[in-house]
Specification:
This protein has 381 residues and is an alpha+beta fold. It is built from 11 helices and 12 strands. It binds alpha-D-galactopyranose. The site of alpha-D-galactopyranose has 11 residues, from helix 5.
């Protein structure tokens, strides 16, 4: 049974009728442009086939009652009295309500159920998927206009200031604005987006190393602080405004670690722009080369990879038909991504996990995903 059916049936069983709406919002994988979003730079993610679905109907009072099907847990709260709970999925629900109300929106209550198939903790943004699917529901119930960019910002605020995870804007933007068949170029300063066609001849393969490390980790915040320190050194608002030449000029006098961090961000922004040009020419080989360079830069300069990610990337890169591979997402665990020739993807899917298991003793997971649409909904009754 697909997830849409699952939430529909669970809703009918719980409430004895159809929901008014079902909302959906996808997870994401980043093709290139890592750790650039909080530097006002460029990122090129795509929304994936895995998503969170919410089936809901409005209530006449200000109570929200939601069941997380995968957890078998229910939360009920009043919109006039939102407080932090014990952590976990509940914080995303109360956090989105809190952030929407913080924008001055008058929200209505609702009841419903939700479930998703975005792997949790794998770096595929199950949290952004949940936030946006819930935000879509709140907007329908409350008759609010749906502006995907604004809603991405609202959900980021929930994540940063309520859940307490200091993430950039990429995940929420692509979950909200993704487009089937396209990667999404995001200018993380202006929040302008454009759709970039993915090559017909290649497939995006997501390789989950089965290693985990949460974002709440201090390493992410430390990288952010290091980037801010370099921007400040150049009197710039963000690393987006510092050029490779300016950085090179300071090579001899700058702290080596800070220099490496900045070199990653500045070169990664450039790689995103080159990747877009490559995609516009349908040039999978150049995109693959840029992905390989991105991995090297994340591993050596930004130092957010780990042994298993490096092993997965190397195994993938050595496989016939692989244009390129890199770690994807925040790092320190989770997934790699490979761009693979469509005709050779079956062998790739067969060989890579076996080799990885043999080398690491870890059982990986492999997902081949098309680029899917961002947040959407359907009307029932
Ligand atoms: C995490 C964050 C994103 C982004 C990436 C690194 O996924 O949620 O905002 O910073 O790390 O590119």
């Amino acid at each position: 049974m697909n997830i849409r059916e699952k939430v529909l049936q669970a809703f009918q069983a719980e409430y004895g009728g159809d929901p008014t709406w079902i909302t959906r919002s996808p997870g994401r994988v980043n093709i290139i442009g890592e750790h650039t979003d909080y530097n006002d730079g460029f990122a090129l993610p795509m929304a994936i086939d895995y998503a969170t679905w919410v089936a809901l109907k409005p209530r006449s009072d200000r109570v929200v009652q939601a069941t997380a099907l995968d957890k078998g847990q229910m939360l009920e709260f009043n919109l006039d009295d939102i407080s932090k709970g014990k952590g976990g999925w509940e914080e995303y629900l109360t956090g989105v309500a809190w952030a929407l109300q913080g924008e001055g929106h008058q929200l209505g209550g609702w009841e419903g159920v939700f479930a998703g198939d975005v792997p949790i903790g794998a770096g595929l943004s199950s949290s952004a998927a949940l936030e946006l699917a819930l935000a879509r529901g709140f907007c329908l119930v409350s008759d609010l206009e749906w502006d995907p960019r604004r809603m991405a910002l609202v959900c980021q605020k929930a994540e940063n200031h309520w859940v307490g995870v200091n993430s950039g804007i990429m995940d929420q933007m692509v979950s909200a604005c993704g487009k089937e068949g396209y990667a999404l170029l995001i200018d993380c300063r202006s929040l302008e987006t454009s759709q970039v066609p993915l090559p017909e001849s290649a497939r995006v393969v997501i390789l989950d190393t089965s290693t985990r490390r949460g974002l709440v980790d201090s390493a992410y915040n430390e990288r952010r602080a290091q980037c801010e320190a370099v921007a400040c050194h150049f009197n710039a608002d963000a690393l987006r405004d510092v050029t490779q030449e300016q950085l090179l000029d300071k090579a001899g006098i700058m702290n080596t670690l800070l220099y490496q961090r900045a070199r990653h961000v500045i070169s990664e922004n450039q790689r995103v722009l080159e990747a877009v040009e490559a995609l516009e020419r349908g040039d999978a080989e150049s995109l693959g080369r840029l992905m390989n360079e991105s991995h090297r830069s994340l591993r050596d300069d930004y130092q957010v990879s780990r042994e298993e990610l490096d092993q997965m990337v190397e195994i993938a890169q050595d496989e016939p038909g692989c244009y390129g591979a890199r770690m994807t997402g925040g790092g320190f665990g989770g997934c790699a991504i490979a761009l693979v020739d469509a005709d050779q993807v079956e062998d790739f899917e067969y060989n890579v996990p076996r080799k990885y298991l043999r080398q690491t003793g870890l059982e990986p997971k492999v997902y081949v995903s098309r680029a899917s649409d961002g947040t959407s909904y359907e009307v029932f009754s």
